[in-house]
């Protein structure tokens, strides 16, 4: 049930954002969208590493802040230079998002499959095991 | 176990951030088409500013109108002697200044953009098919030289301080935006006014294909000027 907590936090965040008194200036909205992409990327990366049991909260949190800030900074620099670095960041985050999503999907499918097989094995094995033990008892 | 708690907490934190940022983003970029277009967002801001100011103007005009009604009520109290004479003079002065609604015979000119013409020739310059403020100005001038005593365009009474001004896509009269179809009402001798405008700018506009209707009316009612008439700098010389 641990996944329930982040989802609740998501809605709480939406609520907080809607009722916060701050309004992002129009010029910054573009960079905010990149920060959102970075956040999505880190949360999916986090979920993936959780599933793969290689999770490290420090790495994820630092990745979240560093990625978001760097991406926004790069996009801003690109705007100043007249190069659309914005799209580079979108591309990179997009690719990583889909990569992480597919890894998570693979993992989940594998997980469900193995559980089913184990279930099936338990079910098939249970009567024979019992009978054998009973037989064993009888014999002793 | 401690490790899992920390991991769940950090994922939770980032989810919270995503939610908050997303909501902020949605709030900051209300129009979906112009999310990244700073310019059009600025335009939206300007449009809402203009709308607010126009509402304010309307409210103030209402206040002015009620004060004027009150004043008119006081002024029209039955007086005797020289006060009565003054009262009549005041009334005439107001009539001339355009501060009262008036009734009388005159003509009504209705004109609209040449939409059909533009559809038929989509490659032409669209400026050829819309009504410009110069057109209205020419017609108003012709009406004035035909002896029109009161003129109103789209319910905006023209007085001495009235302007006819082009601001981008719209025309301002008495700093109020007006848009086609335009209805110009003028009180005066219907036959003279009719002759005057028929051989002026309207003739050219009719031959260019603008939809124009010209009618005479024996009892036109023109509204009063709603704005202020203040003289801050002028005195008698």
Tags for this model:
heterodimer; A: 140 residues; mainly alpha; 85% helix; elongated; disordered C terminus; B: alpha+beta; Alpha-Beta Plaits; three-stranded antiparallel β-sheet; 7 helices; 8 strands; flat
Folded structure, characterized:
The complex is a heterodimer of chains A (140) and B (237). Chain A is mainly alpha-helical and 140 residues long. Chain A has one domain. Chain A contains 4 helices and no strands. In chain A, α3 (57-81) runs antiparallel to α4 (85-139). The longest helix of chain A has 55 residues, at 85-139. Chain A is elongated. Chain A starts with a helix and ends with a helix. The relative contact order of chain A is 0.09. The model of chain A is unreliable at 129-140 (pLDDT under 50). Chain B is an alpha+beta fold and 237 residues long. Chain B has 2 domains: 33-77; 98-222, 2-Layer Sandwich (Alpha-Beta Plaits), CATH 3.30.70.1880. In chain B, 49% of the residues lie in helices and 19% in strands. Chain B has helices spanning 2-28, 38-75, 82-97, 115-120, 133-145, 190-198, 201-207, and strands at 102-111, 150-153, 156-157, 164-167, 170-173, 176-178, 182-187, 212-222. In chain B, the strands form 2 sheets. A 5-stranded antiparallel sheet of chain B has the order 3-2-7-1-8. Chain B has a 3-stranded antiparallel sheet with strand order 4-5-6, with helices on one face. Chain B is flat. In chain B, 22% of the residues are buried. The mean pLDDT of chain B is 85. The chains are: A mainly alpha (140), B alpha+beta (237). Chains A and B meet through α1, α2 and α3 of A and α1 and α2 of B.
Short recap of the structure:
The complex is a heterodimer of chains A (140) and B (237). With 140 residues, chain A is mainly alpha-helical.
The beta-strand count of chain A equals 0
How much of the sequence of chain B is in beta strands? Answer: 15-25%
Strand content of chain A: under 5%
Which consecutive residue ranges of chain B, at least 5 long each, have pLDDT under 50? Answer: none
